[in-house]
Amino acid sequence: MRLVNTRSLQFHDFYLSEIPRYAILSHTWGDDEVSFQDMSLPDRFSRKGYAKIIQTCQLALRYGLDFAWIDTCCIDKSISAELTESINSMFHWYTNAAVCYVSLEDLLPSAPAEEGLAKCRWFTQGWTLQELLAPKSVQFYDMAWNYRGSKLDFITVISNATGIPRSVIKGASSLAEYSVARRMSWAARRQTTRVEDTAYCLLGIFDVNMPLLYGEGLKAFRRLQEEIVKRNNDLTIFAWDDLNRHEHQPLGLFASSPAAFIKSSDVSPFIDDFINFSATNKGLFVSGGVPLRTASITTDDGLEIV
Amino acid sequence: MGLSSFTLGGGIYLRKIGPKLFQRDWEFALAGFGLNNVKQIDVFDATDCYILIDPITSGAVPSSTFRNCALHVPLDPIFELENPIPRTLWDITDRTFLRPKPYCWTRYQMVLAMRFFGRLEGELVTLVVLCDYRESVPVGKVFLPGQYPRQETIIFSTRNRNESVYWEELEMEEPGLLLLGNYADVVVGNQEFRISVLFEKRIVESISKDVEVFSLKLDISKAG
């Protein structure tokens, strides 16, 4: 893990067992961020993104932390192996951080946090879901870097805005206690710049790992669901609906994006369900005896369909 | 599939494409979770089945393949079908015994069994219909309950409900079944009726416009 020294602003690489206590930044990306390579350029001081790095380091120092992790500059994105390792580790990096500073770049200093917080872009982004849930301590700062409160201070506001139960935001319940469908629904309204990131940003939420293949497009989300099926005996992964679907239009068994789970926010698996299923090249193989119900449906036109 | 706070349970609707092969039915939203007017007809155990993940793939077998020359059992004005066996092949939507394999040269090595019941002259009549479809044209065999009690028990036992028994086994048990005709005579009050099973090769548009099926028909006439 590459951390930035909060005093010298120099990078240090650490193996897992040696990682010191560190602060971590959560923010929404802008146009003028400072990358790993940019950190050695003389013009970095004039970049908007550099201010975020400086502010994060200063806050960390005040908190007694000598190191910080900032996603813009602590990953060398030109090396795909490093990017893959970072994205697959990011949930744990946020979990293990001593504190997570959230920079709300669209929250005016004059805006009351209770009203302004939920409208911030930070709550609409894919990556920030894990950045909200993974760290134990999350501190919110407005656009002028004024401290506005912790995630516990705004827990009701956050829960209402995101649909995530308070116990999850608090860290009192683990993510695994919630169905796949529910967790997907938390990401249903969130956006990412790259389509692949709708899947990659959820690796930690579902505790799965997979290689990153930028360019694969929607297949990334398909691969994510296959990985989830490998690790979870939870049929609610199929409890989604395509709100734009057309009748008789054949669609797959896997959703094309988390948006399909928007109405699945309270779906939980049956307690007594224990069906073995796995994704094969013939389809979803459901082994053993599966109780299927035959049913008839009466449509709005009064037509009975079996 | 799961529970929500609004319903006791829910899931997705499936359509049967072939034996042990299903596809999600996109005509309807999530089952139970929405406000569909749903009536449960039956619950059965499907063993080791597949649900297509990607229906539109070059390798996917179209559902019509399993219905080509399959045995169709349409609704009858008098007799109601009960216990179509084997359940693995029975598609309740199309009321069809699907072909066991997609290959056109395959036949049904197992007994296709149906129990019908209905009222003739106000009296309840039950009928057992077996279909021998090991050759290119299905052959019906009809008997009344109690005529072959041991064989009837074997055929309709829970154990054989999903896969049925093979004709070879049944013939060894009771060679007399081979001699059965496609009709049975039923005495109701003072009247004697002959109920015959016929198969008509035709296109049933609700199943497929591309392939023909053998449609079963129960013909009732006064005997004698």
Q: Which class do the helix and strand fractions of chain A yield?
A: alpha/beta
Q: Rg of chain B to the nearest angstrom?
A: 19 Å
CATH architecture of the largest domain in chain B: Sandwich
Unreliable stretches of chain A, pLDDT < 50, 5 or more residues?
A: none
Number of helices of chain B: 2
Mean pLDDT of chain A: 92
What percentage of residues of chain A falls in helices of 4 or more residues? 25-40%
Tally of distinct domains of chain A: 2
Strand sequence of the main sheet of chain A, in spatial order? 2-1-4-3-5-6-7
User: How many structural domains of chain B?
Assistant: 2
Class inferred from helices and paired strands of chain B: mainly beta
- Helix segment count of chain A? 9
The protein's oligomeric status is heterodimer
Helix percentage range of chain B: under 10%
Q: How many E strands of chain A?
A: 10
Question: What kind of sheet is the major sheet of chain B?
Answer: 6 strands, mixed
Uncertain runs of chain B are none
Strand order of the largest sheet of chain B: 6-7-4-13-12-11
Number of strands of chain B: 13
How many angstroms separate the termini of chain B?
A: 56 Å
The biggest beta sheet of chain A is recorded as: 7 strands, mixed
